[in-house]
Design a protein that fits this description.
The complex is a heterodimer of chains A (about 525) and B (about 180). Chain A is α+β, with helices and mostly antiparallel strands. Chain A has 16 helices and 15 strands. In chain A, a hairpin with a 7-residue loop joins β7 and β8. Chain B is α+β, with helices and mostly antiparallel strands and about 180 residues long. The longest helix of chain B is centred in the last third of the chain and has 15 residues, at about 160-175. Classes of the chains: A alpha+beta (about 525), B alpha+beta (about 180). The interface of A and B includes residues 423, 447, 451, 458 and 514 of A.
């Protein structure tokens, strides 16, 4: 059990007089026992005052055995009422409460701590915990553990420094030491107190590794300008902000505090810090779930469907898209904010994808629901497949973020097979195209096709056609099956793209050739796992 | 003369014409404009051009159009999307190349549109007959990318297929 000893007396004395709350005092005394911070405010105050009253000559250890349970409500009286009642933008307000007359407390008015501005006071109490949990429950997320993250106003760092400086001076005068390293950080102490309460109320543990995050942003407008003196002392720490946001970010303030000389600090900032009139305000309580990933393979049976929405000048040129047809249902089931669709390569609007289909992965951002059984995923797949005949999906499953890498690998390295319907201007006979079947590992030099030059740089790509198989149809038509290296432009191989793809079917057959239809027969990537 | 539905690489291009460039009779050019949003244009010789008439043999093709400027040294490499900024910018009457024939004539090929030069056709340097055999496809002269803001206005100074056919008809009538 941790205890306060004689060397802590001057710290307790100085801070208590300055208007620092008991928990902050414990922090500066380097008290490391989490349990102690959870004791009710009143009790901690009582114990500290008793500690001070006791005879300094006796061996002093303060015992923190108190009877009251940790969750007892503490009431703070606000000297000022009125402005805090206003609730303009959902800011969390603490209702002014009258001190319970039945509770015999020495000081009926509790000052807002001059170091933590109320974070380790009001915002550790059951009322606030309840408000946070209400927000979480109403947001209706599915989660098995949570991370609670807190954003504190930057002036807290300034006030912390001010308190420490004055303590350091006092301790030096008394010939005692004060180590900065053992002082408990405010955020850490706050989490010690609030995590167990949140856990209990939400019914799940806190887990640092988990993706479900509850975040609170605190602000203290009354003292926002306290950081400004740092800008004159260390101007290069404060770069102009990109948005209209304040230039005094937490990072910038901490950096400036590291640089500023003690004398300069003492000149510009009251040490110890002054007592504020108001508590901090909790500006926002937000919930966010980490993204989940759904993978599968899709077939495309329409020759009139783009992969992504085709919108020009705000006008949709073609109805729907592969990604929308697949993602629509996932968005509904997972209740996500948005999605990111990616696939192992793409096909043009007028190209079908047959065979096993093309691997794809969808990132669902901030999903409310994250757990799905294999059965449920099968059901989802069914729903997607019955809703459209233009696309079909298979092997629909949840995957990790790392697994996406395997899909993109496939895009560069693996082979694809195609089937092309080809027209020629001059007549052909069966014999004229038979030789194509014997060509293996045909090397192509493909300049960036004209049709994509507006969005791709000019370059020459060397690509290989591994094998071909022809099927004669009539004097001006034949079907060609090809197995090619990833990244080969098939259409350009057929019509030659103004001679910019060499060799091409036209040059091989000594005719003008054109492609009438193209199908992807297979995408030779063995991911995601077949179900 | 009526253009049948062209198959092959030209299928997605619209044909625009610029006849009698710089007042030189029958030196007509055909600009193929792609149907994409950001229109890529391919500069070619129109069928009426003297170089494409029977009996003409090409002696040389030169992309060095002045002491300081060679269309072959166009800077368009690199992966940056802004790479086109370094490409040579062309106005309508910017010369692309000079072609001389064995009968002593010299012809200048002009850009006909405003935009950035993407590439000139090096295949015709090694094989000039392609220019005459397939002027609208493998024998193209250059590829030009108009400025995004000028995409719609780039063909303003050019004639449609129909308008060009009327010009050809007039020529035929006036020569008879």
């Amino acid at each position: 059990m941790s205890s306060l000893t004689e060397k802590d007396r001057p710290i307790v004395q100085l801070l208590l007089n300055a208007g620092t709350c008991p928990r902050c005092i414990l922090r500066f005394c380097s008290v490391g026992s989490q349990m102690l911070y959870r004791h009710p405010y009143k009790d901690l105050m009582k114990v500290l005052k008793e500690f001070l009253k006791n005879n300094p000559e006796k061996e002093d250890t303060v015992c923190f055995d108190v009877v009251d349970p940790p969750c007892k409500r503490i009431r703070l009286e606000h000297p000022e009422e009125g402005p805090e009642d206003l609730n303009h933008n959902g800011a969390l307000q603490q209702n002014p409460q009258v001190n319970d007359e039945n509770t015999a407390v020495e000081d009926s008015a509790v000052k807002v701590c001059n170091v933590c501005l109320g974070i380790l006071q009001e915002f550790c109490e059951a009322d606030f915990v309840k408000k946070v949990c209400q927000k979480v429950n109403s947001a209706d997320y599915q989660f098995t553990s949570f991370v609670f993250s807190v954003s504190l106003p930057p002036q807290l760092s300034v006030r912390e420094r001010a308190a420490w400086l004055v303590l350091k001076q006092e301790m030096r005068n008394l010939g005692l030491s004060l180590s900065k390293d053992d002082i408990v950080q405010l955020k850490e102490a706050y989490k010690w107190i609030i995590h167990p309460q949140l856990s209990e109320e939400l019914g799940v543990p806190a887990d640092g590794k988990v993706l479900f995050e509850v975040s609170v942003v605190f602000a203290h407008p009354e003292t926002d300008e306290e950081c400004h003196f740092l800008a004159t002392a260390c101007p290069d720490c404060f770069k102009p902000a990109k948005n209209k946001q304040s230039v005094f970010t937490r990072m910038a303030v901490i950096k400036a505090l590291e640089k500023i000389k003690e004398e300069d600090f003492l000149k510009h900032f009251p040490c110890p810090p002054s007592s504020p009139k108001n508590l901090c305000v909790a500006l926002e309580i937000q919930c966010n779930n980490g993204a989940v990933f759904v993978a599968g393979r899709y077939n495309k049976y329409s020759r009139n469907l783009p992969q992504t929405p085709w919108i020009i000048d705000g006008e949709r040129k073609l109805e729907s898209s592969v990604e929308e047809l697949i993602s629509e249902h996932l968005m509904t089931e997972f209740r996500a904010d948005s999605f990111n669709f990616s696939s192992s390569g793409r096909e043009d609007v007028d190209v079908r994808t047959l065979g096993n289909g093309r691997p794809f992965a969808i990132e669902l951002v901030n999903p409310r629901r994250i757990h799905f059984t294999a059965e449920e995923m099968k059901g989802l797949q069914q729903t997607i497949n019955t809703s459209s005949d233009k696309i079909q999906v298979r092997d629909l499953q949840l995957v990790t973020r790392e697994a996406i890498g395997r899909m993109k690998e496939g895009e560069e390295e693996k082979t694809k097979t195609y089937s092309a319907l080809i027209w020629t201007d001059k007549a052909i006979q069966k014999e004229d195209i038979a030789f194509l079947d014997d060509i293996k590992e045909l090397k192509l030099d493909q300049k960036t096709p004209l049709r994509v030059l507006h969005r791709r740089p000019l370059a020459v790509r060397c690509r290989i056609i591994h094998t071909m198989r022809s099927e004669y149809i009539d004097e001006h038509h034949f079907r060609l099956h090809l197995k090619t290296q990833a990244g080969t432009y098939i259409k350009e191989f057929v019509h030659g793209d103004f001679g910019r793809t060499k060799p091409n079917i036209g040059s091989l057959l000594n005719r003008t050739a054109d492609i009438l239809e193209l199908d992807v027969e297979s995408v030779d990537v063995d991911w995601p796992p077949t179900l | 003369m009526a253009a049948a539905t062209r198959g092959g690489a030209e299928r997605y291009f619209t044909r625009w014409y610029k006849p009698d460039v710089k007042g030189r009779p029958c030196e007509d050019f055909c600009v193929l404009q792609h149907s994409n949003r950001r229109v890529i244009c391919v500069i070619t010789l129109a069928e009426a051009h003297p170089l494409l008439q029977s009996g003409k043999t090409i002696k040389s093709i030169n992309y060095q159009i002045s002491a300081n400027c060679s269309r072959l040294q166009n800077k368009v490499s690199g992966k940056s999307k802004r790479v086109w900024l370094f490409a040579q910018f062309l106005t309508e009457l910017a010369p692309l190349c000079r072609i001389s024939s064995t009968d002593g004539e010299e012809y200048t090929i002009y850009s006909c549109i405003r935009g950035r030069l993407i590439e000139v056709n090096e295949n015709i340097l090694s094989n000039p007959t392609i220019l005459q055999e397939k002027p609208s496809t493998e024998g193209y002269i250059a590829v030009v990318l108009p400025k995004f803001e000028e995409s719609k206005s780039v063909t303003q100074g050019l004639l449609t297929q129909k308008e060009y056919e009327e010009v050809l008809l007039k020529r035929l009538n006036s020569s008879s």
